[in-house]
Design goal:
Chain lengths: 253, 263
């Protein structure tokens, strides 16, 4: 595994980066989690990845982030393979994981300082980035509190803040509103709506309305296979995605 | 270096935010203190009884050599400290990698751009720092015995180096177990098992050949640790403990590759 960093952590990339998968396949023993996926996500695009639980969305994301190697096929971010150069790709992305996987014992500001430091920020640049993130994600009142004492909505804001801290050209958000109440869902969706456009955004969700309101284009996965891709309004308004989604759920994918 | 320092700071914050760190430190300090003062009490009683019963009065001028602070206090304290650290260190190391996995923050760490090597080095460094502190809290007792026994600064330094290397080796064993374990409990139990097995192989000797026994002697924690206690700092002992650390670092690093493969 190469461990060299590619681009500088905070290199400005106002238009985002291209993500491309070709015949991407991932097997876990006999189970095929992702089966020959080919798709391209263009720079600056807000792209929704839809599918029922087990459809292969998270597997795809884990391969884009370099956390998992493909069994076959390739995936590239800005022309760089996460398999070959994971750190180079990870420098380009911010990642919001499903279900707020954070450090409950750390205070919000300490956590953000840690993430900034891990991203290579130091001194005044780190302090500025942390202050800006706290302000942008409306975390002023929670900055000195332990993450574990915050509500799920605030924890999700912290999760978003760490992903955008170094202003990355690619942000991947996995189930951003899972487990949140309707008010918290609306807050998180508003934040994402404000932040898309200047970067590539991959939104992984099984909420069709969320995908329609935040993504310009969507892909629907079922049992690891790509079954629809196109303009979000076209795909979702025809009801095809819902049918495909429902079929997927019924077969227990 | 910025990334490594950020990780070290975060690990220290996480470690001291939890009661486990304080409880473990207190437990090791208490156990060692109890053993030290208990052995010191027995030693003093022995001296008193010997003087009053064999010499007709209280005088330690003719106490035989076999009644000494060294055998009566220092060695038992060192032995107990060695075993106490085997019990305590896994309580610290069990969470280091296993907790990241159970929380799902292992992928958060990796996707922040921290390389697996940086993560392993940072976590090992903080754990080494903590177990050295843990050992240091208890070092006052063997140090007191050495000072009162008139053995000098060289012996004190040898024991300090030995205890530090031994603690770090135990931490390395615990960290490897944590890197591969599915839960903190499994990490702790497997670390205890490995450390106890490597502590002393004397129980195996009746069943193995002389050659095998010689090899087991060479990898026994107890014998290496014991030679430091006698004030001997040999290159082979340093290489042994250094080797344990290097193998552990490499194995923990390898665990990241295994997870990428999906094993």
């Amino acid at each position: 595994m190469s461990e060299t960093r590619g681009h500088a952590a905070n290199e400005p990339r106002p238009r985002g980066v291209r993500v491309e998968a070709r015949d991407l396949t991932r097997r876990f023993g006999e189970h095929v989690a992702l089966d020959g996926l080919s798709l391209a996500i263009e720079p600056g695009e807000a792209f929704g990845l839809l599918g029922a639980n087990g459809a292969g969305k998270t597997t795809f994301i884990r391969m884009v982030t370099g956390c998992l190697l493909p069994s076959d096929g390739t995936v590239t971010v800005d022309g760089v393979s996460p398999s070959a150069s994971p750190s180079a790709v990870q420098a380009l992305l911010g990642f919001v994981m499903e279900t707020c996987r954070l450090y409950p014992e750390l205070r919000v500001r300490s956590f953000l300082r840690f993430i900034g430091g891990a991203r290579g920020l130091a001194g005044a640049r780190l302090a500025t980035a942390v202050d800006r993130a706290i302000e942008r994600f409306r975390l002023e009142g929670a900055a000195t509190r332990p993450i574990g004492n915050l509500s799920k909505g605030f924890q999700q804001r912290v999760s978003l803040a760490q992903a955008f801290l170094h202003d990355p050209p690619l942000v991947i958000v996995d189930e951003p509103t899972g487990g949140l109440d309707p008010l918290q869902q609306t807050e998180v969706q508003e934040i994402l709506r404000e932040l898309r456009g200047r970067r590539t955004l991959i939104l992984c969700t099984h909420d069709l309305h969320e995908a329609e309101s935040l993504a310009s284009r969507v892909a629907v996965l079922r049992q690891g296979r790509l079954v629809a891709v196109g303009n979000a309004k076209d795909v979702l308004s025809e009801g095809e995605a819902l049918d495909l989604f429902r079929d997927s759920a019924e077969v227990g994918a | 270096m910025t990334a490594l320092l950020a990780l070290v700071r975060k690990e220290l914050l996480s470690l001291f935010a939890l009661p486990t760190a304080y409880l473990t430190l207190t437990m090791v300090a208490l156990v060692t203190a109890l053993i030290f003062f208990d052995h010191l009490r027995i030693y003093n009683q022995t001296l008193f009884l010997y003087a009053t019963t064999t010499m007709g009065g209280f005088s330690t001028d003719e106490i035989p050599d076999y009644i000494n602070l060294w055998d009566a206090v220092f060695f038992p304290v060192m032995e107990t400290l060695g075993l106490t650290l085997i019990g305590a260190v896994p309580l610290v190391t069990m969470r280091v990698f296993a907790e990241e996995r159970s929380r799902g923050t292992d992928e958060l760490l990796v996707t922040t751009g921290l390389t697996p090597t940086t993560i392993v080095v940072g976590k090992f460094a903080v754990t080494f720092l903590f177990v050295t502190l843990m050992m240091g809290v208890s070092f006052v007792y063997p140090a007191t015995a050495i000072a009162r026994g008139g053995l000098g600064i060289e012996h004190l330094a040898a024991v300090f180096v030995g205890l530090t290397l031994y603690s770090i080796a135990l931490a390395s064993i615990g960290l490897v177990c944590s890197a591969f374990a599915s839960s903190q409990l499994v990490a702790a139990v497997s670390a205890w098992a490995v450390a106890f097995v490597f502590w002393d192989f004397a129980w195996v000797y009746p069943f193995v050949s002389e050659g095998v026994a010689g090899f087991l002697d060479a990898i026994s924690l107890h014998l290496r640790y014991g030679s430091f206690a006698e004030g001997i700092v040999s290159l082979s002992n340093i290489v042994y403990f250094g080797g344990v650390v290097l193998v552990a670092v490499a194995a923990a690093r390898f665990s990241f590759d295994l997870r990428r493969v999906g094993a």
